[in-house]
Amino acid sequence: MTKPSESPPVLSVVTISWNQKDDIAEYLAAMEKTRSRVDFPIEMVLVDNGSVDGTIEMVREEFPWVKLVENGRNVGFAAGCNAGMHVSTGTYILLFNPDARAAPQAFKGMVRYLRENRSAGGVGCMMLHDDGLPQRSAYRELSPWNYVLNHSMIYPALEKVRKIPYRLGFGKGGAPREVDWVQAACLMVPRTVYEKVGDMDDSFFIYCEDTDWCHRIRKAGYRIVYMPNLRIRHRQMGSVGRKPEYFFRRVYRSIVHYTNRQFEPPRDGRILRTMWWDMRLRVPAYRVLQWLKPSQAARYGERIRSVRRMLRIIEARDPDLFDDPPPR
Fold first, then answer.
1. Ramachandran region, residue 101 (left: φ > 0; alpha: ψ -120 to 50; beta: rest)
2. Cβ distance 67 to 43 under 8 Å?
């Protein structure tokens, strides 16, 4: 059993769990190996958002070296990360998903970059699917065009086109480059930056909290850097796959919330109009899919109801128009 290091941690890894007992056990076992393969002390902080599947008991028994934070209920991703960062003590803080797998070289590379580049306020690396193909890990600021490319109904088709160069063996590396934001599935920040910028905004229950945080880090005068030369595996779905409609609604509610908070006219109006047309066109598209795939008619019917709810939210510019309590 690995013992906690007596030296102050250089890196605090903050991870959120919610009813993922088996995944968390696999994740922490992998993290234990990673801790032994890097040349600096790592502190593991696991924040449990009210799991009822025995996750807490398992962690206490099998991974006593983990710093466990028990929230008692599902407070969301942003609030969970904040709780973990509050108790962390490392010089650098890494927000890291339990469906990702730690790569010692990636951890060391991100720490090294932040040590050598004080103007960087956050870094992320390339995340790969299990088939080795890259995921979208870094983005530019939200705009109508970026919404279409990354969130609209045609996104799945665009993503297949994007993967063609990777399947041919191109574009899997490259030098670090400045971006507007990176996913909090793997986002490392110096403690000094965290202390200056503050917590994530927990009014974002899930999604866009990383976009908003990186926005605030950039406003504070720091750069957000994407490092495609460093790679980790990321299964991407995690707990999201168990409640697809809830998380679908949360994605687009959060985009409305972020647009309201960070943009002024006319940019905010252009983004919301683009969202509205995307949702409006989804209804007949899902109707056609209901007809073509009768075995999945109920699924598409539920999605149509979610889309109609989103249309009303966009029209009212009110992400809290409907009560959508956290899943248990």
1. beta
2. yes
Q: Give residue for tokens 């009014």.
A: 203
CA 114 – CA 118 distance, rounded (Å): 6
pLDDT digits (tens, 9 = 90+) for 100-136: 998 899 999 999 999 999 999 999 999 998 888 888 8
Quick one: average pLDDT of 221-246? Answer: 84
Read off the pLDDT of residues 25-70 as tens digits, 9 standing for 90 and up: 999 999 999 999 999 999 999 999 999 999 999 999 999 999 999 9
- Return the pLDDT at 166: 77
Q: Are 137 and 124 in contact (CB under 8 A)?
A: yes
Residue 98 confidence (pLDDT): 95
Region for 285 from its dihedrals, namely left if φ exceeds 0, alpha if ψ lies in -120 to 50, beta otherwise: alpha
Cβ contact 215:115 at 8 Å: no
d(CA 311, CA 322): 12
**Average pLDDT, stretch 301-320?**
96
> pTM, whole model, 2 decimals?
0.93
Buried b (16+ CB within 10 A) or exposed e, 185-199: bbbbbbeebbeebee
Q: φ and ψ at 153, to 5 degrees?
A: -60, -25
Quickly tell me which residue has 């670090």 as its tokens.
Answer: 176
- Write the burial class of residue 234 (CB in 10 Å: 0-12 exposed, 13-18 middle, 19+ buried): buried
Q: SS3 for 122?
A: strand
217/119 Cα distance (integer angstroms): 11
Give, in degrees to the nearest 5, the angle at Cα 160 between 286 and 207. Answer: 65
